[in-house]
Fold STEEP1 domain-containing protein.
Amino acid sequence: MSSPESDTTAAYSCRCAQFVVAVAPSVGHLPRRQADLSGLESIIVAKDKCELVIKGDRDAYSTNLKREDGTEEQWFIYRCPRCNLPFAYDLAKSDAPYTYLLESALNKIS
Ligand SMILES: [Zn+2]
């Protein structure tokens, strides 16, 4: 049994106030990915465990971030349709099991 609170859907806007994300359970219950490559902490949304609605434009090409060991991590970035600010990313071009939300880019609206 899950608590009522964990079943709540939370909605988030971009800093420009455009609605961009709804996720259940609310992100307060979700694990975090430590800031490493980007310097930003991100929220881990497992697609098989969470309901996620994204209203944004996803880059067709990857942004490659270099790890300390020289290998690269590929980010497929979701951007706000109004102001183009990045607010989330996947680590695979298709069928990514996780989507990562950039916490600092989002404002909770409900
Ligand atoms: Zn925006």
Remarks:
- The longest strand covers residues 72-79.
- Residues 11 and 22 are 4 Å apart (CA to CA).
